[in-house]
Amino acid sequence: MTDEILTTQEVFANLQKLLNTNNISAFRETFLDHHIYDQSQFYLELTDSERLALYSLLSPEEMSAIFENIDFDEIDITPYLKEILPEYLSAIFDEMSTDNAADILTKLNKRERRSIFTLMAPENVTEIRNLMHYDEETAGSLMTTEFVAVVANQTVSSAMTVIRATAEEAETIYYVYVLDNDKQLLGVISLRSLIISHDDVLISDLVNEHIIKVDVEEPQERVARYFRDYDLLALPVVSHDNLMLGIVTVDDIIDVIDDEAQSDYSGLAGVNMDNVNQNPFQSAAKRLPWLIALLFLGMGTASLVDHFDGLTSKASVLAIFISLITGTAGNAGTQSLAVSVRRLSLNDEQNKSFFSLILAEIATGLVTGAITGLTIFAVVSFWKGNIMLGLAVGVAMFCAITVANLAGSLIPVGMDRLGFDPAVASGPFISTMSDLTSVFIYFSIAGIFIRFLS
Amino acid sequence: MTDEILTTQEVFANLQKLLNTNNISAFRETFLDHHIYDQSQFYLELTDSERLALYSLLSPEEMSAIFENIDFDEIDITPYLKEILPEYLSAIFDEMSTDNAADILTKLNKRERRSIFTLMAPENVTEIRNLMHYDEETAGSLMTTEFVAVVANQTVSSAMTVIRATAEEAETIYYVYVLDNDKQLLGVISLRSLIISHDDVLISDLVNEHIIKVDVEEPQERVARYFRDYDLLALPVVSHDNLMLGIVTVDDIIDVIDDEAQSDYSGLAGVNMDNVNQNPFQSAAKRLPWLIALLFLGMGTASLVDHFDGLTSKASVLAIFISLITGTAGNAGTQSLAVSVRRLSLNDEQNKSFFSLILAEIATGLVTGAITGLTIFAVVSFWKGNIMLGLAVGVAMFCAITVANLAGSLIPVGMDRLGFDPAVASGPFISTMSDLTSVFIYFSIAGIFIRFLS
C-alpha cells in the first residue's frame, strides 16, 4: 500500500488547497470520502486558520467522528478546543461516544468543563460525569456505556428490532447482552448466533451464561489479558453487585497493549518513547535528564575509586578489571530488571509472595554469578599468571552479579508493592547503581587479597 | 475475578479426577461447559496418559477447537501430535481453520505432513498447502481463507442467506466482502449496515469501495498498524492483481503486537522473554550466553586499560573516571539503540534514507554529549581543582557519547538494511562495546593532556 500512502499525501495537499480557496462542495465531497483516520490525520496537520475554516464546513457530527479517532494520550488537543465556538463544541461532545468525550473533558479544568456541560444534553452530561469518576487505567475508564441490551424472555425477532434501533449509537452490536429487570447481567449472545436462529426462538434458550466479565475497578492490564486469552471483541463491565455498566471494545485494548509495552520499553531504555520522531534538540532534551542524573550517581562511583586510591597504587593491576566487573554486573542487573518488570506487567503475581519473587532472582544471580566468576577466574589466572588475582576478580564478579540481580528485581518489585509503576526503574539506573556497588565489592575483596597481588 | 480464577484451579482438579475415574458423561458435561481457552489450558496440564484418555472422550471437532486456541509460537505441541491416532488427527485438522492448521503442519517434517494429508479432505489439503507457501510474518501467513463473500448485484436478503449458510465456518461474519465474477475485491459491507437495511436493497448500493486492504506479502507489523490506526476487526488480503485471498482478524493481530513488543524488549534487555516463569537454573541458562559472550568483549576493554598502564601510573587520577565515562556513554548508547529499534519497528522508515536516520542520531549525540561534557568539565575542574583534567574528562565524555549514539543507531539500522531483525542488537551489547571505544577515546585524549595532569 506504499503507493496509496503517497497518494494520501498528495490528496492532503489537494484538500488543503480546496479548503484555502473555500471551495466548499468540492472539499466536503473529497474530504468526507476518506476514512475517519485519514480525516483526523489531515485535521492535525492544519494551521490555526485552516482549522477554523474546517469547523465552518463540517457538521458537529462529522467533526465528532474526527475527535473520536484521535489518540488523546499521544496528542493534546485541549488547546484546539478553546478556538471552537461553545455551541459547536458542545454539539460535538453530544455526538461523541461517552467514553471518548469523558477522556477529553477530564483534561479541561472544572470551569471550562462546566461551561461546556451547560450547553450539552443533560442525559449525556450525567453519563460523562459518571465515567469521569473511574480511576485511570481501570476497566471503568476504558468502557463505553453504548452497548446493546435485551431481556431473556424476548424472542429473536424482537431482539433484532432492538438491535436495529440501537445499531447507529452502539459501539458494537456484535455482542448483545442479556439483562434482568434490575439491570443485572445474565449472559451474552453473539449477533452471529442470533442471525442463524429462527425468529421465534426465545433469547433465554440461546444465552450463554458462562460470560467473561470484569469488575469496573479491574486494572487495564488484566482487562487486556482477557482479550488476549479469550480472543474477545468486547467485554462487559459490571459493578460489585453485577450491575451492567458498560463494555470495553477491542480497539481500545489494542491501544492499552501498545501503551503498556511502550512504557515497559521506555523504562528499560531510560528514555520516554512517546514520540520517536523528533528533531535532535527535542530528542536530546528527553534523554538528558536521565543522563545528567545518572552522571551524578556515577560521580559517587568515581569518588569511591578515588577513595581506594591507596589500593590501586599498591597494585595497579587492579585498575584493569574495574570496567570489566562493573560492565558485567550491569548487564546482569539489566537482564534481571527486564525480567522482573515483564513478570509484573504480564502476570498475576499478586498471588506470589514478595519474597518468593526476590528469592528466585537471587538464586538466578547465584548461578549466573558462579559460572561467570569461574570463567573470569580461569581467564585472569591464565592471562596474568596469578591465581590469587584470578581468585580476587572471580569472587568479586560472583558477588557483584548476585547483588546486581538482587537490585534488578528488588527495585521494580518494591516499587510495584508501594503502588508505583515498576517500569519507571530504568535499565541505565540499575547499571549505574550497580557500578557503585560493584566497585565497592571489588575493592573490598581486593583489600583482603592485597598481599598476594602485584 | 480473582476468586473465579481460583475456582478454575479447583475445577481443573475435579476434571482431572473425573477423567482418571473414566466418568465419561460427567466429564464431558463439565469440560465442554468451559470456555475454549480454559479447555486448552486444562489440556496442556495433563499427563501423557490423561491426554490419551481425553482423546477417546472428545470428538475431533471438540479437540480441534482446543488446538485452535493454543498459541503455537509459545507452546510446541508437535510431540503431542505423534501420540494421536492418524485418523483422529487428520479429522482434527479437517475441522480446524486453515490458517491454524497450516501453522501447526509447517512445524512437522515433510513425511509426517504427507501422511496426515493423505487422510484429510482434498479441498482442505489444497488450501493448507497454499497457505504454507507464504513467508512467515507476512499478511499471507496470518490470514485465513474462511471469509464471507457476496456479489454486487445481490439483494440484502439474499446476502443474509449466504451469511447464515457460512456463519458456522467463517472466521468472522461481521465484515462481508463484495467480489466480482473474477473474485476481484470490490468493497466491503459491515453486518451492521446489512441488518439495518431493507431486504430488497441492492448490495451495490451499500458497498463501501474505499476499502483498506493489504497485499499478501505485506509484513505483519504494517498489517498491525492498519488495525491500530483504523480500528479494524478484520482486514482483507489480496494478491498483486487484487484477487481476494483471505482475511486477517483482530485476535491474530493482538498476538502480533504482543510478539513484536516482546521481541524489541527482549533485545534491549539482552535476554529472551519468551517464558518469564522459569526456575533459577532455566533462567540462568537463558541469560548466561549473552553474559559470557560480553565478558570476553569486556576482556578487550580490560586489556586496553592494561595497554594504557603507562598513562595511569603517570597520572593515577585518570583511573577514577574510567567507570564514569564508560557508564555514561553506555547509558547514552542504550537510549539511542532503544529509540532506533522502536523507530524501525513502529514506522515506515523505508522512505527515509539510511543516512538521514544516522545523521539525526549523531546530531542528538552531539547535543547530549556537549551538555554532559560541559557538566562533567565543571564538576571535575571544581572537585580536583584542575581545569586541564576537567577539560580532558569533558572532551572525552563528549566524544564517547557521540560515538555511543552513533553505534546505538548504526547497528540496528544497519542490521535492518541487511535484512536482520534490528531487535537482536541488545542493550548490554551496545554498552559493553561502548566501554571499549570509550576507554580508547578517554586514554587517547588523556594522552594529549598528560603533561598538564597529575
UniProtKB/TrEMBL annotation, chains A, B:
Homology family: Belongs to the SLC41A transporter family.
Localization terms from the record: Cell membrane; Membrane
Pfam families in the record: CBS (PF00571), MgtE (PF01769), MgtE_N (PF03448)
Family matches, as NCBIfam families: mgtE
Subunit structure: Homodimer.
CDD domains attached to this UniProt entry: CBS_pair_Mg_transporter (cd04606)
Transmembrane segments: 288-305, 317-334, 354-380, 387-408, 428-453
Record gene name: mgtE
Membrane topology field: Multi-pass membrane protein
Source organism per UniProt: Pseudolactococcus hodotermopsidis
Reported function: Acts as a magnesium transporter.
GO molecular function ontology, one term from the record: magnesium ion transmembrane transporter activity
Alphabetic keyword roster: CBS domain, Cell membrane, Magnesium, Membrane, Metal-binding, Transmembrane, Transmembrane helix, Transport
GO cellular component: plasma membrane
SUPFAM superfamilies: CBS-domain pair, MgtE membrane domain-like, MgtE N-terminal domain-like
InterPro entries xref list: CBS_dom, CBS_dom_sf, Mg_transptr_MgtE_intracell_dom, MgtE_N_sf, MgtE_transporter, SLC41_membr_dom, SLC41_membr_dom_sf
PANTHER family hit by this protein: MAGNESIUM TRANSPORTER MGTE
Span of domain CBS: 143-206, 207-263
SMART domains: CBS, MgtE_N
Protein name (record): Magnesium transporter MgtE
Superkingdom assignment: Bacteria
Broad class of the protein's primary localization: membrane
